[in-house]
Amino acid sequence: MVQRCAWVHDDSLEQQYHDTKWCRPKHDDQQLFMWLILEIMQAGLSWVTILHKQMAMQTAFDQFDYRLIAHYDENKIAELMQNAQIIRNRRKLTAMVNNAQVFLRVQQQFGSFDHYLWGLVDNQVQQNSWSTTTQVPAKSPLSERIAIQFKQLGFQFVGPTIIYSYLQAVGVINDHQQNCAFR
């Protein structure tokens, strides 16, 4: 039996996410935007819910193309609010549009979002060494600092807990437990 982090259950999508995506460094701007949106959508919900709705959201959100999402208008938001396959939270959907616009500005200013984000950590993965899931914090000084910077740039729905999860999702933070085969 493969040893995984204790938070992983029997759900195959959750196992696949843990084994192949979680805490793996990502540098593609499209992927960095997608994971930001998924983490925002997850606020107040279980991660497994997001994983099960990810494909529907990918379709509904134009493959998470931030260039298209930046131009969503109220009609598009109203259309999305009718889609029972996705997370239908107006605040999250409008934050997604705003964040796509900010994402584009960050790209213009820094050359890429990847360059900006990884520059905040000197292009180094933060390697944590937890023995149990209960040791993993919900936020950290790093996520608090980045959340403040994101908010200053104009991003919405980016508190330190969401940002901590985001940093795990895109591999800036590696929180695989010490006994995890995927560490």
TrEMBL record:
The keyword Oxidoreductase does not apply. InterPro entries: Adenine_glyco, DNA-3mA_glycosylase, DNA_glycosylase. The chain crosses the membrane at residues 32-51. The keyword NADP does not apply. Keywords: Membrane, Transmembrane, Transmembrane helix. Pfam families: Adenine_glyco. PANTHER family: DNA-3-METHYLADENINE GLYCOSYLASE 1 (PTHR30037), DNA-3-METHYLADENINE GLYCOSYLASE I (PTHR30037:SF4). This is DNA-3-methyladenine glycosylase I.
